[in-house]
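Input for the complex:
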Amino acid sequence: MFDFLDKYDVLGAFWTTVQLTLLSAVGSLVWGTLLAAMRVGPVPLMRGFATAYVNIVRNIPLTVIILFSSLGLNQTLGISLGAHGFDAINFRLAVLGLTLYTSSFVCEAIRAGINTVPVGQAEAARAIGLSFTQVLGLVVLPQAFRAAVGPLTNVLIALTKNTTVAAAIGVAEAAFLMKKMIENEAQLLAISAVIAFGFVCLTLPTGLILGWVGKKVAVKR
Amino acid sequence: MSSVLYDAQGPRAKRRNTLYTAVFLVALAALGWWVYTALDDKGQLAWPLWKPFFSGTEAYSTYIWPGLENTLKAAALAMVIALPLGAVLGIARLSDHVWVRVPAAIVVEFFRAIPVLVLMIFGLALFAQYTGVSSDDRPFYAVVTGLVLYNASVLAEIVRAGILALPKGQSEAALAIGLRKGQAMRLILLPQAVTTMLPAIVSQLVVVVKDTALGGAVLTFPELLASANTMSGYYGNIIASLTVVGVIYVIINFSLTSFASWLEGRLRRRKKSTGAVLAVQDLADIAGTAGTGADPAGTGAGIGDGGARK
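Predicted:
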């Protein structure tokens, strides 16, 4: 029943999924944190920019962003992000799209984390003469991150699932392979079960482990 | 402008912030200039490419409106089917009987763990192999099926959280006056929970609308994004088409998000209720979905609130 597994590189496809997830996760964590810092910072222009960015990006379907990066950035404007060959270019474009999209949710998760930090913490930090970057970097963000592990885990799980959208521009990840296998083999249920099992294996442990970590590191108040 | 995160600005801080503003402005301008030249070099700013959207209604009546119609139809239908399913699953998860609670939990957790695109692809093949649905209708059926399966499980969690968010006294009082468990749920808990979770449900609509675009890109479902793609083939203006479509999505989803926040604030202020409102942020936690909308920081009394201290 599962003999189609020999013909297709299922593990390789899931490895691409994992790569997409990890690279975009790192990218969006950095960019999302920067956006969050801009949103709570003292410079009005940066605040406005970050707010506008988040409100626009999270309201556009990821599919539109990914398609735009392929059809618009690559095929029309000729941007290839330093990669050569169809597969490599589309992979990088997918990571770019996923990062730009996910960072808006990372920003919101961190902002929610910042909101859990009691006002007294920031007041005390200011009272001893720390500047904004010090208040944020030394006192508020470390606590905010610990509170944000839960929301960030959900963003990571959503990101894992969202990598399937890269199939729309031909990145050979799990959903792309699933479509190909279904077209060629007459074993719909077995194929779907394998792909579903793969995603359950990726998302369920992420949720469980990081959920446990989140409880462990949460600041007890 | 002051916030709990930084002191009121003196002359030096003001000068420094002006400098930061200037540097940031230059960076933004450079980015803008780079985008402008990149577009201009490839002739993407030529008027003929953008003209269809600003003069005449052909682009709208031939491409955008039919696509938008399909998007909204699929989203609405999926939501209408998913809501009762989600309610049943959510209530089942709260059951006192293990043999009801555990299967419901497994179903919910399973469909939440799987990407909606995988469900759609599965649905497409399922309808092709096991039913007589014509090949024209199949993508629509598949998109709705995928959306229903995924969103029913998300809504189940919303319903569960909504009922759990009610004060315990509500169910205790209901049982104390002699109502049975089913009656307490139907007459006391659910009616209150519905208002509690209304904002969360509206924000979930944003996710549904956004996910319909998957059907256009991968399953040839003729919704807004797919028709934009067709349109760009006709006018040769992919960048302009995708930009216009992006703006349309932002308008729809931003109104939905704002409506959800407004609803949340209104329910929170209402004196009649128990005061339990399922914040939109809770939804993001429940759904594990990066598709949720609204303003999580808007509900807390914390310090990251857009700079202004409450």
